[in-house]
Amino acid sequence: MAADAPVLRLREISKSFGAVAAVQNVSFDLYGGEAHALVGENGAGKSTLVKMLAGVHRPDSGTVELDGVPVELNAPADAKAAGIAVIYQEPTLFPDLSVAENIAMGRQPLGRFKTVDRTAMLRQAEQLFTRLGVAIAPNRPARGLSIADQQLVEIAKALSADARVVIMDEPTAALTGVEVERLFSVARSLRDDGAALVFISHRFEEITALCERVTILRDGRHVSTDLLADLSVDEMVRRMVGRDLDALFPKQDVTPGAVVLSVDGLRRDPVFTDVSFEVRAGEIVALAGLVGSGRSEVVQSVFGVDPRDGGTVKVGGRTLKPGSPRAAMAAGVALVPEDRRQQGLVMELSIERNVTLPRSRALSRLGFLTGGSERRSATEWTQRLKTKYGRLSDEVGTLSGGNQQKVVLAKWLSMAPKLLIVDEPTRGIDVGTKAEVHRLMSSLAAEGVAVLMVSSELPEVLGMADRVLVMREGRLVAELDRAEATEESVMFAATGQEVSV
């Protein structure tokens, strides 16, 4: 039950980075005992707002009030002292310290001779995990913990500091369904204990399952704050993007052409075995299945990132050399990986350099890469994909997640691929950018590009694929045409029920 007076109040908060106004005059209230969703497209200002509350960025103007009293959050220590804790999508624990040491960092209990009381520290961690209803050994190293358990350690840290405002920034992006439900159980207990919970997610089903109130941002500005019970998902989408989405899955009907990709008996022990399939020009084929079924490993092996122990991969009738991404690229294969930050981009390099990396040799003259040719190519492709950025010379790490994904796509599309492999193409991006990515995939297929897609989102699989290939425990167990693919048929195959191959 929400408190009568807000715990935290934002009034006319603004923040700019150079000429880019990231947040403009945003105001809303957070109440204790309530989960409050913060939603908007990538680039809407959510992350900047969170970093200002965390003390990472200082607002250019506006005020933050705690219990009606203005506070200045000039550093992360100020935010912690004010009782504000942030749980990021990728937790930042010290890997070589124990779980208990991470929880107590900066506030270690001291014994008689002013040394750290390790017994008290372990006991405190045990009590916190008991309160959260989770079983994590306090004395184990943080290294090796799953993302889900790392987030629970971060929540325990927030509890140990008596945090009154807990911000969860895309906490479920890398979690399984079971881990998400466990996280939600913990989040509800925080809320019920009186904390003001801020939840940021692109998944509407999670927002409606957890939150009571929602604030919508668009282009750095506050659009509305409402009770979720008063809003439909369609209305939320319209407010987020400022327009009606004609279709989230704008699939064009295309008659498939010649076989572009032929995979026969592909095997990588013990990850997957005897995987065979084809993808034709103009066709979108989805690889579906549960996490751990081998989908991503198959496409990485096709592209040559991972080795293989048997089988053949042909593109346009030409057999690809195993374990050679260079050979795959030369044959016209492009791979948009699942983890764009670690595998798809060089975060310290500029936007233009990332876009042109695969074509740097083609853009060079006498062995030198000129800034003019690089900038012209990068400008063309970032504009075609409607990428939002300040300057092309900015580091790609300054972009929002959706715009980073567009840079990865621009990098590979500039090569005019025959086969485009996309692994989780819309993970962690907003609904408006999802529609743009889907429209792009559909138009590429209409132009004759063969598309192989890995996705964990069943609506995306069913909405975009001409055929669905279902994997289970490293084997291809079902092939479903678009007309026969349903959520039930895909899940039956993925979980071992009777479906004919």
Mean pLDDT: 87
Describe the main β-sheet briefly.
Answer: 6 strands, mixed
Q: Regarding CATH, which class of the largest domain?
A: Alpha Beta
Indicate the CATH architecture of the largest domain.
Answer: 3-Layer(aba) Sandwich
Helix content: 25-40%
Q: Give the terminus-to-terminus CA distance.
A: 51 Å
Task: Determine the structural class based on helices, strands and strand pairing.
Answer: alpha/beta
Which shape, going by the Cα principal axes? globular
CATH superfamily of the largest domain, by name, is P-loop containing nucleotide triphosphate hydrolases
Number of domains: 2
Approximate strand percentage: 15-25%
Number of helices: 18
Folded structure, characterized:
The structure is a single chain. With 501 residues, this protein is an alpha/beta fold. It folds into two domains: 8-93 and 145-241, Rossmann fold; 259-494, 3-Layer(aba) Sandwich (Rossmann fold). The protein has 18 helices and 20 strands. A hairpin with a 2-residue loop joins strand 4 and strand 5 (69-71). Helix 4 (118-132) packs across helix 5 (147-160) and helix 14 (371-384) packs across helix 15 (401-413). The longest helix is centred in the middle third of the chain and has 16 residues, at 177-192. The chain is globular and about 75 Å long. Residues 8-244, 249-498 form the ABC transporter domain. One of its GO terms (molecular function) is ATP binding.
